[in-house]
Fold:
Amino acid sequence: MTTIAKITNPERRRDWLVVFGTDEVQLVSPIPQLASLPGLDGSQVVYMADLTKLDADQRGRLITFIAARFHVPADVVARDLDTVGLPILGGDVTIISNDIGLVLSSVDDDVDAWRELTAADLEDEEETHAA
Structure:
């Protein structure tokens, strides 16, 4: 399953293109979280970037970017990045996901029943409605 954040904020998009070389970043989950972020008041809705999907160059540029933006030594950012993670502001992105479980759970509470359906079950259902 893949969930992607596509940046929609023009200013942040420029940053993403420099850091990631793209306007899309894979996420750990399509489910947002609340987080307190430096420079922003109150809790913010965020998605967490999947840092394991970054290549070495992207990770290096990310560390350099965070260090410069928040005036933190790059070695500290590098040391703490996996622990702290990379929150992405929910209001700045569109989420794209092929997590079928999430999709089905939004329309039916019994996701397990959906997962147990077979092609034969679906054919039987079509025949029932056709009759």
In short: The chain is about 50% helix and 20% strand.
